[in-house]
Structures are given as C-alpha cells and as structure tokens.
Description:
The chain has four helices and five strands.
Amino acid sequence: MKKMILIAASLLVLSACEPVRSTNGVFLTQDDVMAIKPGIATRADVLQALGTPTTSAVFDDTTWYYVGLKTRKDAFFDAKVTDKSVYEVKFDELGTVSSVQQVEGEAIDVPLARRKTPTSGHDLTFAQQLLGNLGRFNKSSSATGTPGL
C-alpha cells in the first residue's frame, strides 16, 4: 500500500513540472500560400482562404501580415518562442494580390517607456497642502451672521 501511495505522489509531482505550450496567431501551410495566386486573387479571396490577418501595415492598408507563434513556458520562467511564422500579403491599388512571401529575420522587441510626463505646477508636501489654506477664507461682511455672504 505504501508503494502505491509513493508512486501516485511521484507521478503527481512529476506532472506538475510539465511545460505549458501555447499557439497564438495563424500558421499558414504551403497549401494555404499556394491557394493565393498573385495577380488573380482579391482581398475577399485572401480573407476566405486565410482568414482575418493578424495585423496590417501601419500607414497603408495594402499590406497584410499573418503571424503565428508557438511558445513554451517551463515552471516560473518566462515563455520562450519555439516556432514562428510570418507571411506578408501585398495588394495593388485595385485590391488584387501582388505578392505573397514569408518574412525572415528576427523580431525587434520594443520596450515600453514607463517614464512620467513632467507637468507644470508645484509639488506640494502633505504639510504644505494641509496648512496652505489657512487664512484664505473670506470673513463674513453681512450682519446676518451667515458665513461667506
């Protein structure tokens, strides 16, 4: 009985170390890419064959990107990219496909700036804020005794 409990506990501990694998985006196959004929296929054909693009070019809508990432995360470590696929579909001004190609190269990780934008004004301490309004109240000038009137 002790052996069974020991084996079950060992399996439970070992299964907790299993890496987490995830797939994000679109992984295109060669059949998917070959289905898009440059000069013939339109935007609607591309949407039907490949689906919605992951992103499009920033300043024009003539370039679509299909991006796929496979990652693996071990325990508490950061996730590592194990496979990636990036395809670029370009259109001409009439909306027909001019080229479909796989994009090679390393991605550039652009860190976000966490700085604060400086603003004009005073940086008051707690004591300055607390004592700053002393003596700034209007005295009552009416005979009714109602403050501020």
